[in-house]
Amino acid sequence: MGTELYNFISKLYPICRSITGEGTRETLRLIQKHIPLEIHEVPTGTRVLDWEVPKEWNIRDAFIKNSKGEKIVDFKNLNLHVLNYSTPVHDFINLETLKKHLYSIPEHPEWVPYRTSYYAEKWGFCISHKQLLELTEDTYEVFIDSSLTKGSLTYGELVIAGETDDEVLLSTHICHPSLCNDNLSGIAVNTFLAKELSRSDTKYTYRFVFIPATIGAITWLSQNKDQLSHIKYGLVTSLLGIDSLFTYKRSRTGNSSIDRIAERVLKKNKLACNIIDFVPYGYDERQFCSPGFNLPVGNISRVPYSQYPEYHSSADNLNFISKKGLEDSFRIIKEIIFEIEHGKKYMNLFPKGEPQLGKRGLYDSIGGRNDSQQLQMALLWVLSYSDGDYTLSDIGDLSGIETDLLNEAIHLLLTKQLIKEI
Ligand code: ZN
């Protein structure tokens, strides 16, 4: 699987993606070769929550030439060289003016940064700091053959129907150009997860969304407002390509079922992991967990964004990610899905006050046993947490009671019709 994921990333790597435009469409069409993704187009100017779908950006070519006519920066060699969403330009300018439009990373002089300007119209180039320092007084030809026009925002969606219409949302962003960990890794992992899930019978319905960051999530939420109550679990997947510790960022409530499951899977695998509380910055969990939606959506990644130096630079390339990193990420998310599918849940049929156990003969049936006190505790734990949200494993984790004893308690409570399996 590591090789398949890596090969798919290699195919997607050269494409110049953005929050809108042909690169994004081409990416979605390549995903369609693996899964029957539905592609949605939302026109420029459409009101989406408090935002508006922006103009569509497309780019064909860009370069900087010196006075000898030599191309010193060429978009065709590396699409990060152009400030993403640059307005078109064709001009002859001096060094001082050029420098006002250049971006570099002084701390990593060999790398080219990835920079965007979606909501302020300007043009620019990204180059290595080393190259910037080497530029001499000259007349430079700057050329960016881009367009910002009325078009649409494009996103992909695949719904895999399960036995129930309760949903698991898996979301990843698709707007970064030639960058591998952020976020071709998320695109590849989600594509192949969808491929596997579409071949199996599932209890839950799985909704995969491939959306440009922020504006894509806002657009999708705006168009699906009435469906959101079906979402019982959600994961934003990002930065899954490197073989480092895992990071799980909890949903905003901090205690959603997905939070308990993800933490349990990571701990069970004895993987180096970092579990963090929700903070209102990061990826699209910010939108899914905004107070008006407050969905049970966490974020799973390896080392989080901005905490690795290669973040948003040309060093996040095909050499930076590894097959092992991708494969382990894929396996862990699959295990989380397995737990979602197979976690047993019960509903207390007498949830208001404790049901009277004595009159149902439950105390009689357990009297005289060495572990009767423990079994009684198990009965109380199961009754207390059988609210349709906590799984048997959750109750085991919370109470510290062994599974065998919890199962015995469940058997007794089912027999006496105090709980039902859901
Ligand atoms: Zn990013």
Write a compact overview of the structure shown.
The chain is of the alpha/beta class and 422 residues long.
The name of the CATH topology of the largest domain is: Aminopeptidase
Average pLDDT, rounded to a whole number, is 95
Bound molecules: zinc ion
Q: Output the number of helix runs.
A: 13
What's the CATH C level of the largest domain? Alpha Beta
What does the largest sheet look like?
8 strands, mixed
| CATH architectural group of the largest domain | 3-Layer(aba) Sandwich
* CATH homologous superfamily placement of the largest domain: Zn peptidases
How many structural domains are formed by the residues? 3
Relative helix content: 25-40%
User: What percent strand?
Assistant: 15-25%
User: Measured on Cα atoms, how large is the radius of gyration?
Assistant: 26 Å
User: Runs with pLDDT <50, length 5+?
Assistant: none
- Strand line-up across the major sheet: 1-10-12-11-13-16-14-15
Distance between the termini: 34 Å
> What shape does the CA trace take?
elongated
The tally of strands reads 19
Judged by helices, strands and strand pairing, the structural class is alpha/beta
What does this structure look like?
By secondary structure, the chain is an alpha/beta fold. It folds into 3 domains: 2-54 and 152-342, Zn peptidases (Aminopeptidase); 56-149, Glucose Oxidase, domain 1, CATH 3.50.30.90; 345-421, Arc Repressor Mutant, subunit A, CATH 1.10.10. It has 13 helices and 19 strands. It has helices at residues 2-12, 22-32, 95-99, 129-134, 180-197, 215-223, 257-268, 285-288, 323-342, 362-366, 372-385, 392-399, 403-415; strands at 38-43, 47-48, 51-52, 56-65, 71-74, 89-94, 102-103, 125-126, 139-149, 152-160, 167-173, 205-211, 231-237, 246-249, 273-276, 297-301, 345-348, 387-391, 419-421. It has an 8-stranded mixed sheet with strand order 1-10-12-11-13-16-14-15, sandwiched between helices. The protein is elongated and about 95 Å long. 43% of the residues are buried. The mean pLDDT is 95. Bound molecules: zinc ion.
